[in-house]
Design goal:
19% helix; 134 residues
């Protein structure tokens, strides 16, 4: 009987590991950032998470990353509530970039931006957007 229990335990650990790896690959986790354009004319990219008021991530939320008075990029969060957009031109200051998020049935309550990287840096700018159910 203990042989069967041990065999079941090993099988469940194997299935769990396969699920974790396949979820990371499907959600873009394994190659997150691998497709960055390292052009000299491009500024830092922008990435982050959309969460609800309890801190749970929100898949399929709409995220708009835009430059004041110039337009921007619209994307959606992945299965893990993460998003990423490429950088704008080097002439665009990260201080002029605004991030907003939305999802039906929710309203945006805040956008938290991590400290900005040094000027002329290729380090991505991270934000966290919080939504609250209406």
């Amino acid at each position: 009987m203990t042989f069967l229990a041990r065999r079941w335990s090993v099988a469940s650990m194997l299935v769990g590991a396969v699920c974790i790896v396949s979820t990371a690959v499907w959600a873009g986790g394994s190659g997150f950032g691998d497709d960055d354009d390292n052009s000299e004319e491009e500024g830092p990219s922008y990435f982050g998470f959309v969460k609800d008021a309890n801190g749970a991530t929100m898949p399929d939320a709409k995220v708009t990353v835009g430059v004041k008075d110039r337009g921007g990029v619209v994307t959606r969060t992945d299965a893990l509530g993460a998003y990423k957009v490429p950088g704008f031109g080097k002439e665009v200051s990260p201080n002029d970039v605004q991030v907003s998020c939305e999802k039906q049935g929710y309203k945006q309550t805040r956008v938290l931006r991590r400290p900005l990287p040094p000027p002329d840096s290729k380090i991505p700018v991270e934000t966290e957007c919080t939504l609250q159910r209406i």
